[in-house]
Backbone:
């Protein structure tokens, strides 16, 4: 039977009495990080970009896996009427908007060219 050994007690004397070299290193690091605003802005900007990229990739993976599972379980057909109705609503809205835009353009052209042109009377 294997004997179990207990780990030695933790030695926290380094944290209780840090040497001056480690404190100086910490102060220099903090000074370098917080007293150079350009570096701080750049680091924060990159952090935000990578955070957004990670959220986007993670969300895409979760949605893809969820859709795959739903499809394999036959759950996609359950949502099919809703998806068809949504597609019809979007298509009708786009067609209505396109027709309204074309009608407005035609009305503007008709107003422009149907206004009476002044005739020049001979002297």
Residues:
């Amino acid at each position: 039977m294997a004997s179990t050994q207990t780990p030695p007690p933790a030695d926290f004397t380094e944290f209780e009495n840090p040497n001056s070299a480690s404190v100086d290193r910490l102060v220099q690091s903090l000074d370098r990080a917080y007293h150079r605003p350009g570096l701080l802005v750049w680091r924060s900007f990159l952090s935000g970009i990578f955070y957004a990229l990670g959220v986007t990739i993670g969300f895409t993976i979760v949605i893809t896996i969820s859709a795959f599972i739903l499809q394999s379980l036959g759950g996609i057909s359950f949502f099919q009427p809703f998806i068809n109705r949504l597609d019809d609503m979007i298509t009708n809205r786009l067609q209505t908007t396109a027709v309204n835009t074309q009608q407005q353009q035609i009305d503007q052209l008709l107003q422009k060219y149907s206004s009476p042109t002044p005739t020049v009377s001979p002297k």
Summary: Residues 17-73 form one domain. The first helix runs from residue 13 to 16. The helical segments are 13-16, 20-34, 37-73, 76-114. The chain has two domains: 17-73, 75-112.
